[in-house]
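Researcher: Re-running this chain for the archive, since the previous output was lost when a drive failed. Same request as before.
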Amino acid sequence: MARTLYVASSNPGKLRDFRVAAAQHDIGVLPLPGLEAIAAPPEDAPTFEENALEKAIYYSQFLPGEMVLADDSGLAVNALEGAPGVRSARYAADAGFRRATTTDANNNLFLLQQLDGIAEGERGAHYHCALALAVDGTGVMASQGTVEGRILFSPRGDGGFGYDPLFYVPALEQTMAEIDDRTRWAHSHRGEAFRALLQLLA
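Model: Regenerated structure tokens:
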């Protein structure tokens, strides 16, 4: 009988990525039921790992007996001393920056503003993903993944989400937004972290 992981996220990009890999291991992936009605935890820990664990523990209490998966992931840019880091999803909002109609577009525009004048060779960055699995308010396992790249001067591609249109992967000669789902999963931080978690589950 297939096992099911309940993901504490309504982000369609993340859910799609998790489902692609989990299906190969006879594991189902579903969003946590009633997630929209649950008050979100603060997510104020200083590291991705701590935030992921705190979220998994918190949300697992709303679905007794089931495995609840939470992630915290984001972008770290060398020239910005690791920013936006754990504040990746709220990078532009934290600064009161509003130039576009979506969160992703605002974040990308604000990132480009912060890197204005920074040469191509100094725009190194990496994506980091931390995953945590909890059952009944207790953390049971965790994993991590990273992918190295650099930030372009303008977006390319219309796939992916978040900073993907700006995140160029030299090994692929494409941005994360230009590659197909299967390739993205094989090379992404989230894919690496989730494959490690699936090995632990196995």
